[in-house]
Each structure stands twice: as C-alpha cells, then as structure tokens.
Amino acid sequence: MSTKAYSIKDIAQKANVSITTVSFIINGKAVEKNISTAVIKRVEEIVKAVGYKPNQVARSLRTGSSKIIALIVEDISNPFFASIARLVEEKAYKRGYKIIYSSTENFPEKMTELINLFKSMQVDAYIISPVQGAEKDIQSLMNERKPVVLFDRYLPSLAANYVGVDHFKASYDATTHFASTYQKHIALVTIDLEVQQITDRQEGYKKALLAFDLPFREHLVLKVPFNQQKEETVEQLVGLFKEHKEIDAVLFATNYLAISGLSALKKMDKLVNDNFKVIAYDDGEVFKLHSPQISAVEQPVEEIAEKIVSLIFKQLNTTEVVAKEQVVLPAKLILR
Amino acid sequence: MSTKAYSIKDIAQKANVSITTVSFIINGKAVEKNISTAVIKRVEEIVKAVGYKPNQVARSLRTGSSKIIALIVEDISNPFFASIARLVEEKAYKRGYKIIYSSTENFPEKMTELINLFKSMQVDAYIISPVQGAEKDIQSLMNERKPVVLFDRYLPSLAANYVGVDHFKASYDATTHFASTYQKHIALVTIDLEVQQITDRQEGYKKALLAFDLPFREHLVLKVPFNQQKEETVEQLVGLFKEHKEIDAVLFATNYLAISGLSALKKMDKLVNDNFKVIAYDDGEVFKLHSPQISAVEQPVEEIAEKIVSLIFKQLNTTEVVAKEQVVLPAKLILR
DNA sequence: CTGAAAGCGCTTACAG
DNA sequence: CTGAAAGCGCTTACAG
Questions:
Q1: Rounded CA gap, B143 and B196, in Å?
Q2: pLDDT of the residue at A29
Q3: Residue range A8-54 in CATH 1.10.260
C-alpha cells in the first residue's frame, strides 16, 4: 500500500539514462540540451506511467526557490483580507505559486516570528499588511532582495512597494456628501490607531468639514480602542448617539465599526433616514440588505489583488532591482 | 547588504565544534547526547548572536516532514471557510505548524492537481472539504499514511476522519419550528448538488413535514443550480414567492441562498413577519442586523476547528494507525 | 548527445 | 563527550 514516491533516480534507471538527462527533460531543457527525441519520448512515457512528480523540497534546497508566497495579514477571516487572499491565491496559482498565510493579530512580535519562519522556509515573496513596528523585519527582507509588497497599511518610513486606497479622498468624499445634503453635525467613528490609513480618514473628514465651513467638533469624533470587544463598542456608540442628539450623519471608518454602529442603532430603535445618515467603510451584504440600505465606501478588492500580484511577479521575474511603486487606488462611494 | 543566511556549518566553525554537535544542540538533544555544558553554552550564544535559524527546506528534505498542513476548501473567502481557516491556523501555529491553502472551486481536477502538488511539497497533513470525485486522491493520501481530516462534506465511500454538522437534525429542527408555529406552506431553498450535507438538509425538511402531517410539495422546494450568479438566483426566488403566495415560511439551506432570498424579498418589498418566516443557514452579522432579525442555523465553527486540529495532531503524534473518527456536531438553531 | 560528480543544508547511525 | 560521513532528491557546471 504505502507506495514510496518515485525519485528521479528511479526514472533514470527505468529509462536507462542518467539522472542528468531525466532532469533536463522534466525541466523542459531537453531541446536546448540536444537530447535525442527517442530518449525524450522514452523518459516522458515512464514519467507519465508512474506518475512521477519532482520532489519540490529537494528542488527548493538546490535552487533556493520554493514557489511559495507568504501572505501575512492581521486576520485572515476578516472579509476584506479573505477576499484578497482568495484573489491573490487564484492569480498566483495560475503562475505556479502557492500561498501560505498567517495572521498577526496586530502583534509586532508575531510579525517578526513569522518572517523568520518564512525565511527559513525559503519563501520566494511576501505580501504583507504590516503592523506598526515591523519596519526592521520588512527592511531585512528587502535587503535580502526578496520581493515584498505591502498593502492596506502604509509604512511611511519604508521605501517599499505598496498597494492601497486613497482613504483621505474616500472620507473627504463621504463627508462632502453629508455636507452637501445639509447635514450639520457629522460624526466620525474611528479607531485609536495611529497608522496612516486611519489618520488619513480623519484628515479627509476634517478637510471636508472645513471646505463647507462646518466646525470640527472634537466630541463628534469617537476613537474606539483597537481590539475592543464588540459589545463594549456598541455601548460606547449608544452613549455617543444619546449624548449628542444633534448628530445627523455618521461616517464609520471601518467595516466592523459600521456593524457595531448599526447594532447600536437597532438597540436604540433609532432609524437611518434623512435626519440621520450613515456611510460605512468596505461594502458588504450587511449594508445592502439593511433597511434602509446603507451607503458605503467600497475598496476595489479585485484591483488591489491584481496590482499586488503584478508587483510581486515583476520582481520575481527579474534579478535586477525593480523601482519601488506606491500604488494608491480610488475607493468608490456607493450611495444608496 | 544582501546578507546570506548562516548555515549550520558557519555556526560549527565559529564554535569550533562539528556540525553534528551543533545539530544536537539546536534540536534539544544536547543533554541526551551528553554534550558538555560549556559547548552547549558557546553554541547557543553564537546561534543567538548571529540569529541563526535552521533551514527548514534542508530539514524537510532530510526528515521528510515539512511542518506544513494543507487546507483545501471550495473557496477560502467564503465566511465559513475563512473562519475555519483562521481558527485552524491559530491552533496549528501554537503547535509549530503552518497552513498552506488552496481553493478548489468545486472542480475535481483542481483537487487532484492540488493534492499532487502538496505531496511533492511533502506537506505533513491535509484538512479537506472534499469535492465529489476526489475519493481516489484522498484514498491515495491515506494509503501513504498521511494524516487526513475531511470536514464540511462527507464522502460516504471513504473510511476517513470527518468533522461535520448534523444537517439532517438542523433542518428538521428548523422545519419543526415553522410547523409548530402553524406555518402551513413551508418552502425549502437549496442547491442542486447531490452531496450528503445538502441532501441531509432536504431529508430533515421532509421528515419534519411528515411528523406534522404536512404534505411534501415538490413545487415548494427550489433547487438552485450550483455556481449560478446571484442575480439569477434572486430572480428565481422572486418568481417562486410570486407564484406561490401561499408560502408562509422559508428555510434556506446555505448562507448565500439566504442572502439572495433576503435580496429577493427586499426587491419585492415583502416583509419577514409572522405570516412569512425565514430561517437562514450559518449565522452572520447580515442576519442579526436585518429588520427584523433573521433566525438562523449556526454551525459551531470553534468546535469544528478544534476537532479538526485535534484529529490531525492525534495522527501526527503517532506512527501507529489511528482509528478513523466521524464526528458529527450539533448545529444551533438561533431563533429571533 | 549524454553522464559523473559536486553541492544545496540538514540529521543521524556509527565509531571512537 | 564529539566528529566524519552518508544520504535526503534534486540541478547544473564541466567533461567528453
């Protein structure tokens, strides 16, 4: 039963040629190496007959390339990351690469550990949604000339490839939409992380208020602690809405904050309508099926994934140093 | 800049010992092998100083173990699979294993290809949500004594480890709930796959009707083609609800069917209430935030993941043949 | 047109 | 208490 896998040696023996010849043939170098058609045919038939697959581990050890790409995100089950994971997998697979993933839960130590682990696995390239404090680790990867693409979060101190969304514009547009429909007390619900893609959203909100001569009111900006339990966030939001009855519009800076927000409203029996408008971040079925439907800032997942993969393979396909690119894609404001 | 990684040889040289000694020390066999404390200390200090990490690829080639577990599902971005992926990753990571994933999109050929690929990567174990027609491939894995755990879908012809949910009981209970609140025309919306976990849901529905002396009406069961576009499904559902105005309850057999169903209702401006009840499959924020809230059959994701991982490691931790287990967990009917 | 041999970085049976 | 050496399964520079 327990059929030991065939090795290149077995094939060579069966075909009565050297393993060199077999290697050339299975690697498509037969013609280049002037192997006779008779030999090629004989070897290929044996390969097919016994179902021989070259041992990738041995190949990796010899070539230094594993055909594996690491995907490091905060949480693979987050719908945004799960979608990216799916699309990236599909695109990489077509090019003969597999994806190995891991979730950092936003811990820099976990990030360090993961990168070391992946290094020792001779992973060929890295797609990373970085945490604050991962700069040295990522820099070390780049020093070793490993293809790296950061996404979602930007690390300003790092000259790295990056694919993300224009969060400033997204929240500027969202806030502008509120202001242009004469909402006067626009709240922003965000998290207390000092990372660029979050602060950008706050800046966009501020600047849009300014453009409409609306005052920036500190107390209308709620910064929810990162990693806080949902129940607690809902409580905080109920508090905010009760305390500031003048609020007539809310922009939520993340998907899950918007979900907590809608839960809070449901709890309070408060309706979303022209006197209380809502825009969520990242679109999803939740928002489409809500009554009324909820407007949302949609990140272009397909384009993000495509860009990530193309940047990775641009590096993988050359030994030269490729100029770093920072790609910022527009989000789409979907009004409902 | 491009610092080549240190090898065991480098460490041995620096420490003035053989690579054998270094190997024993880094593998925790120093005491067992009676290495002197002085040597141990010297080597450990050098290892730490240069940040040496053993090359996993070389180790894999030598030992035949990669410390990688393959996760093969239909679609990693499906929330159910994404949650499982997350939990399995976390649990495996704690035990020193990493997860490599791939989506089959329900194609048996992709499944075959993936398994061959993973074999050549010397993956240590397999967690698979199988497609119909993958029996031989999975059997070949088991013949090679690779730990395998199937989940979500059961393949009756295979004596394999399996973790899943009692779908018969889940839909029996859901239908019973409808019947006991005097709904008379209970529809079932399912897909046209002849896999056990789907047919079980139909059987549960049928048997529950029978128990309440309700007739089984063919035209109240809609079998949506697998892989059909959402828009088309919504149209079909609108058609069903319009044509059969007598329907007063609907059980949806999957998460996405329920979402299509709610979209259809929204489109028709038809409300969910005591005259038209709905139960969805797999719980989620969509159902909690819907107005009114939607009842749902919830699969115990945490328990499923825990059981999968424990079955995998039971096999990984022994060389003996472990008796196969079929674990069927109860779903939870959440009434709202 | 084809092959012998070195070497990728480890682990481990064997020897002393 | 420690080391020399074989070998895991490949690829490739070199030789003929």
A1: 24
A2: 85
A3: yes
pLDDT band at B3 (very low <50, low <70, confident <90, very high): low
- The spacing between the Cα labelled CA in A24 and the C1' in D12, in angstroms, equals 10
Q: Which A residues between 7 and 36 have a beta carbon under 7 A from any strand C atom? A: 16-21, 33-36
The gap between B73 CA and D7 C1' (Å) is: 37
- Return the CATH architecture of domain B167-298: 3-Layer(aba) Sandwich (3.40)
CATH of domain B65-159+302-329: 3.40.50.2300
User: What superfamily does domain A66-159+302-330 belong to in CATH?
Assistant: Response regulator (3.40.50.2300)
Q: What is the pLDDT of residues A37-82, one digit of tens each?
A: 888 999 999 999 998 999 999 999 999 999 999 999 999 998 899 9
Closest CA to B104 of B76, B85, B78: B76
DSSP states of A248-290? -EEEESSHHHHHHHHHHHHHHTPPPBTTBEEEEES--HHHHHS
- Stated as kind and residue range, the H or E segment containing A328 is strand A326-329
Which is nearest to A157 in space by CA: A173, A186, A134?
A134
Give pLDDT tens digits for A175-210: 999 999 999 999 999 999 888 889 999 999 999 999
Environment class of A165 (CB within 10 Å of its CB; exposed 0-12, middle 13-18, buried 19+)? buried
Nearest protein residue to the C1' atom of C13, measured from CA: B20
B116, B60 contact by CB (below 8 A): no
Is any Cβ of chain A less than 8 angstroms from the Cβ of B336? no
Q: What are phi and psi of A297, to 5 degrees?
A: -90, 120
The alpha carbon dihedral of B259, B265, B269, B273 has a sign of negative
A61 touches chain B (CB under 8 A): yes
Q: Find, among A101, A126, A71, A123, the residue nearest to B93 by Cα.
A: A101
Domain with CATH 3.40.50.2300 in chain A: 66-159+302-330, 167-298
Strands (E), chain B: 68-73, 98-103, 125-128, 148-151, 161-165, 186-191, 221-224, 249-252, 277-281, 295-298, 326-329, 332-334
Q: pLDDT band at B2, cuts 50/70/90?
A: very low
| B181-238 pLDDT per residue, tens | 999 999 999 999 888 889 999 999 999 999 999 999 999 999 999 889 999 999 999 9
| Contact positions of strand D to protein Cβ (< 7 A) | 1-5, 7-13
